[in-house]
Structure formats: C-alpha cells, structure tokens
Design a protein that fits this description.
Helix 3 packs across helix 5, helix 13 packs across helix 20 and helix 20 crosses helix 21. Strands 6, 9, 10, 13, 14 and 15 form a six-stranded antiparallel sheet that branches. Strands 2-4-3 form a three-stranded antiparallel sheet. It is built from 21 helices and 15 strands. The protein is an alpha+beta fold and 487 residues long. The protein is globular. The protein has three domains: 153 residues, no CATH class; 217 residues, Alpha-Beta Plaits (2-Layer Sandwich), CATH 3.30.70; 110 residues, no CATH class. This is DNA-directed DNA polymerase family A palm domain-containing protein.
Length: 487
C-alpha cells in the first residue's frame, strides 16, 4: 500500500469545532465484546507507561483505516488492515508493543505471508474470529493522545497549507442540531446490504459491515468534527466517508439535500494547466514547485513553453472535458481497443474513470502495481489505460508526466489544492456573503444545499469555475432524497 494513500489519515487539523483547540473527548470504535479493563486485568501488559486509551486507539484502527482508504480492497487485502508505522508512531510511540500485546492475547492476528516492502506496503492486522464482532463506542479522554490524533507534528520538509482560526466558520456552522439523519433507516439499509453480500458469499462482508456502520454511528452521535487536509487544503467530514447510497437518509430542517457536482472534475481542473493564461492566474507554477520541489528549472521551463502545446489533442481533450462526457468518450475508446469488455455504459464509465485516474496520478513508468492474491507478491504489468491515454492525448500526457517527474502525487495535490481554493474559499464564501441563510456542506468538488438554494449555488459555482479555468463547467445536480435499494 503506497504511503500516499494515507494522506487523509496523515494530514489533518481541527477546524475550530469548539472554543478549545482540541475536543475534550474523542470517540473511537472497538469490538462490542472487547472489555479492555477485563483484558488488561487478565493479561497485564508489560508496556512502559501503558495507557488504556492508547490500546483502544490502536484497536480502533482495524476498523477506521479501511473506512478512510478509498482504494482499500477487503478481498485483495484478505481482510487485513495495513498499519502505517510512519503515521502511527506520531500518536502512539510504543505502537509496536501494543500490537504485539494484542496479537499475544488473541485480539488481533498478523498477516504472515505478506512480506513488508518499505514505501510500498504496510504490516497488516485483523481481528481474530473471537473479536470479529459488532462495534461499540469507546471514549478517549487523555488529552495528549487526542492532540496527537487531531494534529500531528510537522517537519520542515513537509508541504503545509496554512489554516488560520475561523477560516471555515461559514461551513462549520451548518453542522448543528438541524442536520437530521434517519439512523434507523440507514441501519436497516446497511444491514440488508450485509445480508445480500453474505448470501452472495462476498469475502469479509462482516468486516465491511462493521467499518461502514461506524459512520452512521457517528451521525447518530453527532460526532461532527471537521478536518482539513494540510497537504492539499481539502476539507474532510463524515460525508466524505459515508457510503453514497446512505445520503438519502440525510435532511436539513426536514428538507432533503441536493448536491451540485462538477462533472469529470479532476480532468476539468487540469485545464488550468493547459491554458497559459490560467496557468499564470492560478499560480500553477508556484503550486508545482510547492508539491514537487525536486522539479528542476528545466521542467519549469518546459511547462512555460506553451506554444509547443497548442495542439489538436489538447483541443480535443478540452472539448471532451468541457461537455462533461470525458469518461464516457474515453471508455468508448478503451472498449474499441478491447482493453476493457464492459457492455454496461455506467460500469464502462466507472472503469474508464479508474484508468484515467491511474493515467493522471500514477507513476510515469507506464506500469501498474498488482498484488497477487495468492502469493501476496507485488508484480508490475503494463498500464494499458495509460498507454492508450498517451496515444490519444500525447501533449496532455507529456505535460502531466513532467509535473509528476520524481513525485507522482504532485499532480493530484495541485488539482486538489486548486479545487479547495475555488470551491471552499471562493464559491462557498460568495454564497455565504450574499445568501447567509443557505445551508452549505461540501464533498470535495461538490456543494450540498437544500432545494430552494440549488439554482443560486449552481450559478455561483459555475461563474467562479469559468473565471478560474476559462472554460464553462458541466454541472450535475444530484438529489440525495432518491431512494436506493441495497445492492
């Protein structure tokens, strides 16, 4: 598992959720049948300065990490949770001793076949059958640990987006008692999904169910702490972790919510890099240097030499992105080249999106990493999707490749940072200033509000995006109150 996958867990800061800098209590979830007091009394731990809150936090990671990692695959990982020591030691210095203890007393089991590879994979742990049970809330009160969880220490080499107090108060204020969540409806939906997956013999469906359930428990308890990614500036809430089909159970003052979403948002935002004027206006050069400080002057000069990039393929790329059908068009090309075999248009679009993200944000070696589910060894195969993208859009691919040289996540960070500037700090701020009564929630490139405010929010977002990117965006409106069956 690549370290970059942990950015959301790794780089967070509390956004003024109370008068205190940090919450007084922090909620985590552990197995319902795990009594920590009884466990410690029965098996006294030989750990220097042992702390029960630390033990509970380490246990809770088995649930919470898969919930945060969008690319986590329960089947591929065989139900094991990757534990990244770089992150964990900033919160629990003696984490190894706690993990060893938990394995020794039969709470966890460690992956034995999967060989650790520095920078690529992390050690994996999962609950033993005895503790692979339903969840319960555990309250952490030790201030030092809460502080370490909510804001880790940063090094001078780390990229940091400054966040000042009250920066996001115009978004934070809507997380209040007027936000309604149909807990019983969501719980029933999620349980039906679990029954369906169990009937279809989906591997590790119990583990999936327990991890997914944590989010609806947080909604029920109004555990609304917001975090801002200090790398890109994105805001993370429980909406970013909630399974999409469960959004139908959320309302504000009894009104269903609607999302104003930018179609093919990452390719769309990348147009700012392909337009010389917008490249300058959006400070792309400074962003590249910030996120890829290994970039040489030769790379920077190449990106500034835009006359060589005024090509037909950039024009085609821009046109497809602007009409909001880039993934559909790219999926058709993948199907035509027989690189995918997916007759269903929606599934073909999803597959094309995955391949596109691999092309934009993957390594430049045009290979993809695959973990053999049997041997657990890492193998590399040609990234056919990236190769096709290069054939279709050679100039675009070349520019992306330059930006990602020696640091493949630089492009993703640049686009996410630009997205945060436009959506959070410009569009949402304008909406709040002019229409302060309009509820606002965000889901990265989406702004969520009530039906009566949808058209105004769409108008503002479209205008701000056009000014920033130079191309009118394709906007999609999603009704969150539409009922969706578990499937």
């Amino acid at each position: 598992m690549n370290k970059e996958n942990y950015d959301e867990e790794n780089s967070v800061q509390i956004i003024n959720t109370s008068k205190d800098e940090y919450p007084r209590m922090y909620f985590v979830y552990i197995p319902k049948n795990l009594d920590i007091d009884e466990l410690v009394e029965r098996y006294p731990p030989n750990i220097n300065r042992f702390n029960k809150d630390k033990l509970a936090y380490v246990v809770s990671l088995i649930y919470s990490i898969p919930m945060r990692l969008k690319d986590y695959d329960f089947q591929l990982q065989d139900g094991y949770t990757p534990i990244n020591s770089v992150i964990l030691k900033t919160r629990v210095r003696e984490y190894k001793e706690y993990l060893i203890y938990l394995v020794r007393v039969g709470v966890l089991e460690k992956r034995s076949l999967f060989k650790y590879q520095a920078g690529l994979t992390s050690s994996g742990y999962r609950f033993t059958l005895r503790y692979n049970k339903d969840i319960r809330k555990y309250i952490i009160t030790w201030k030092r640990l809460i502080k370490a969880i909510c804001k880790r220490k940063r090094t001078s080499k780390e990229v940091f987006v400054p966040i000042t107090a009250n920066t996001m108060d115009y978004l934070e204020k809507w997380w209040n008692d007027d936000l309604e969540f149909d807990y019983l409806g969501a719980k029933k939906w999620l349980f039906n999904l679990y029954l369906e997956e169990r009937e279809n013999e989906i591997p590790h469906c119990e583990r999936k169910y327990y991890s997914r359930k944590i989010i609806i428990e947080k909604f029920k308890d109004r555990d609304y702490i917001l975090h801002q990614d200090s790398t890109s500036g994105r805001v993370h809430t429980i909406l970013t972790q909630l399974k999409g089909e469960l959004r139908q159970f959320i309302k504000y003052k009894g009104e269903p919510l609607m999302a104003i979403d930018i179609k093919n948002s990452q390719p769309y935002l990348s147009l700012s890099i392909l337009n010389p004027t917008k490249y300058k206006d959006n400070g792309i050069r400074d962003k590249i240097y910030k996120y890829n400080n290994e970039a040489s002057s030769t790379i920077m000069l190449a990106l500034c030499n835009y006359p060589n990039y005024d090509t037909d393929d950039i024009k085609v790329f821009t046109e497809l992105v602007a009409n909001g059908r880039f993934y559909e068009a790219f999926g058709d090309q993948l199907q035509k080249k027989q690189l995918i075999d997916e007759p269903c248009p929606s599934k073909r679009r999803k597959k094309a999106k995955q391949i596109m993200f691999s092309s934009m944000f993957g390594h430049n070696n045009e290979k993809c990493k695959v973990i053999d589910p049997e041997t657990k060894k890492v193998r590399y195969f040609p990234n056919e999707g990236m190769i096709l993208f290069k054939e279709q859009f050679p100039s675009v691919h070349h520019i992306f490749k330059i930006i990602k040289k020696n640091k493949h996540n630089a492009l993703a960070c640049i686009l996410q940072n630009l997205e945060a500037e436009i959506v959070l700090h410009k569009a949402c701020k304008i909406i709040t200033d002019i229409r302060p009564e309009a509820p606002l929630f965000t889901l990265h490139d989406s702004i969520i509000t009530t039906e009566e405010n949808v058209h105004y929010v769409k108008e503002v977002l479209s205008k701000v995006l056009f000014e920033a990117i130079g191309v009118a965006p394709a906007i999609k409106i999603e009704h969150w109150n539409e009922k969706m069956e578990a499937a």
